[in-house]
Amino acid sequence: MNVPADNVKIQTTLRQLEQPMCLFGEGPAERRKRLQNLISSLSDNEIAKILRKNEEDNEKVEDTKQIKAKK
User: Fold this and answer.
1) Domain interval for residue 21
2) Distance (Å, rounded) from C-alpha 62 to C-alpha 49?
3) What pLDDT was estimated at residue 41?
4) Could you give the CA distance from residue 3 to residue 60 in angstroms, rounded to a whole number?
5) What is the pLDDT of residue 17?
6) Residue 16 CB: number of other CB atoms within 10 A?
7) Residues contacting 10, CB < 8 A, separation 6+
8) Does residue 28 sit within a domain?
9) Rounded CA gap, 63 and 71, in Å?
10) What is the reported pLDDT for 1?
11) Cα gap 60→18, rounded to integer Å
12) pLDDT at site 54
């Protein structure tokens, strides 16, 4: 997985990997380095597993919203 250069994409990727978007006093360069270290410490399978879990959780939330909207 490549590390994006755009700060917003870095923050989004960190959230998708269940990490804080920003640590106290952290700038864009430090945030990018943290993401790079995280990605290098995880295997591709681990990253895919986390992303799949997040997609499933999002689908459950959407299903719940649809059920509530029908009531």
Assistant:
1) 7-70
2) 20
3) 87
4) 28
5) 87
6) 13
7) 3, 4, 28, 31, 32, 35
8) yes
9) 13
10) 67
11) 17
12) 76
Structural domain count, the chain:
1
For residues 67 and 27, give the distance between their C-alpha atoms in angstroms, rounded to a whole number: 41
Q: What is the pLDDT of residue 68?
A: 75
As a whole number of Å, the end-to-end CA separation of the chain is 42
Residue 1 falls inside a structural domain: no
Residuewise pLDDT in 10s, the chain (71 residues): 678 889 999 999 999 888 999 999 999 999 999 999 998 888 888 888 888 887 777 777 776 777 777 76
User: Helical H runs in 1-71?
Assistant: 7-16, 28-41, 44-70
Angle between helix 44-70 and helix 7-16 axes, rounded to 10 deg: 80
Give the separation between CA 6 and CA 12, rounded to whole angstroms. 10
The predicted model scores a pTM of: 0.67
- If DSSP codes are grouped into helix, strand and coil, which group holds residue 25? coil
Asked if residue 35 belongs to a domain, the reply is: yes
Q: Flag whether 31 is in a domain.
A: yes
